Amino acid sequence: MLQQDNTIALVIDIQERLIPAMNDGADFVSKSCQLIKGLNILNIPTIVTEQYPKGLGNTVAAVQDLTANAPVFEKTQFSALTADVQAAIDDKKPKNIIVLGCETHVCVLQTVLTLREQGLAVYLPQECLASRTLANKNNALQQMQAVGAVVSNVESVLFQLLGDAKNPAFKEISKLIQ
Fold this sequence. Notes:
- The protein has helices at 25-41, 53-56, 61-66, 83-92, 104-117, 134-146, 154-162, 170-177, and strands at 7-12, 46-51, 72-75, 96-102, 121-125, 129-130, 150-152.
- By secondary structure, it is of the alpha/beta class.
- The protein is globular.
- The mean pLDDT is 97.
């Protein structure tokens, strides 16, 4: 179960030159920022990757601003689980990983398949995942769900992490969701 003390987030390739090609790219970035704001309120550690930033640009500014304290790892392989990223994950010893980013059917899919092989619980807020086509995104979500990843949404993920309306962050998260 998602809890503040056993969960991290992995932000995969939300980059300048990728977003214009994504289906509903602007909404995807907006929802990703909403989630990251909530994760920051809840002190959930975040790791960021960038696929070949020389060619695809850096993480979009709105996400960069919210992940300023997170480590950023460059990669050329499609899975986000480079040796450095894997070491950063292992260092945190999470039971759960919230994965967001693009492209759902390439980098996200390959990453999630490996995380599941490692026995980690993976949560996928569906509005924080993007592909160039909706069909590719939906197909990837089906594949990831078939291996046990939980397809969810921003509100469900944040309220699972809260766990109780008595959580000191409840009011701030509630305002973020409205």
